[in-house]
Give the backbone structure.
Amino acid sequence: MKAVVLGGGGLTGRCTVRDLARGGRFTEIIVADLDVELARAAAAAASGATVRAEKVDARDPSSLARVLAGAEVCVNAVQYTFNLEVMGACLEAGVPYLDFGGLFYMTRRQLEWDGKFRKRNLLAIPGLGQVPGVSNVLAAQATSDLDRVDSVVIRDGWRDFTEGGPEVMFTWSPSTFLDEMEKAAAVFEDGGYRDYPAMSGAEEFDFPSPVGRTRVYRTLHSEPATLPAFLAPKGVRHVEWKEGGPGIDVLRTMSLLGLGSSLPLRVRGQEVVPREFTLALLRREGLLGVPPGVTMNDWEVCDLEIHGEAAGRPVARHAQARFPPKPEWGLSATEYAVGVCGAIGAEMIAEGTIRAVGVVPPEVCVPAKAFRAALAARGIETTIHPPEAPLAAVDPGARRDGKM
């Protein structure tokens, strides 16, 4: 079996490559990236399968078609702004697809392609990474026994105990982070969406150890784009995302200074795009990814606070995921969690564990028990307190017909 990891030389894609190679379910893994040197480095770090680097431009349909030919699955780890281009190539090639998120608006555009994928009897999963991804699957399982769901508030916090590293480094796409700092946060309220300013609604929240008490803020995210539709039969009225941790205030300051702007300006007679300058500067300074010789010791925790009703009684429940780093692979908590979730999803699709058709979010199609077991095998702990009632015979991730 052949798997393609597009953007496989990047911060998260390289982890997907390594985990897939270790899993041994694929005989061939293609590390496809515009930067072929990064792709080769990712391929060299993987073992256990035939891993090959290929130079691929996600903006070039012929380039994508060449690398996708004969694949059982494509994991899209490139910048979310290219999701539709990659989905279109997978649709043309007849290859199942998954990505790590679309930052709300792209996710909603992707869902509009449901009919196209169903017509081809093909699956595309938008947002099967860490958050979104694990958060969506936990939301499905933690609400499965409730008769009514009033609200789901997702909070994500992180803490870094790393010694000897730079004060600032990016282990997730800085371009995506800047978008979160600049775009209004979409919150689902009483049957519709309301926009709130980015970084509004600040609150202190007590995450489980080792993150602890952390200030979190509203930002734009993908979970509110899909969970309200999934939970609509249970009358959900509120779905919200918040996040916070070391470095988020730096990102906000960068945004306020205009360093994330895509509007060009002239500097000494030369046209400069601030965001492109920012990314180039971060790359030059070695602030993208974990620097060589630095042993990561950061942690991330996602908490879902759920309120609803079961058997006529009110229910308050927390579903949580604790994401550790992978220092032996030189990966932060975010890089590791996002990457292995992509690998788990790819394996489940190729094996037929996920059998849905259409453009289907994780909460609808991913079997929660199997997914959480795969996470546990990789050192990622997930819990639901108090425990939900035993699941019905059909897992909430067992949808096969492609309908919401």
Observations:
- Residues 2-95 form a domain with the Rossmann fold fold (CATH 3.40.50.720).
- The radius of gyration is 20 Å.
- The chain has a mean pLDDT of 93.
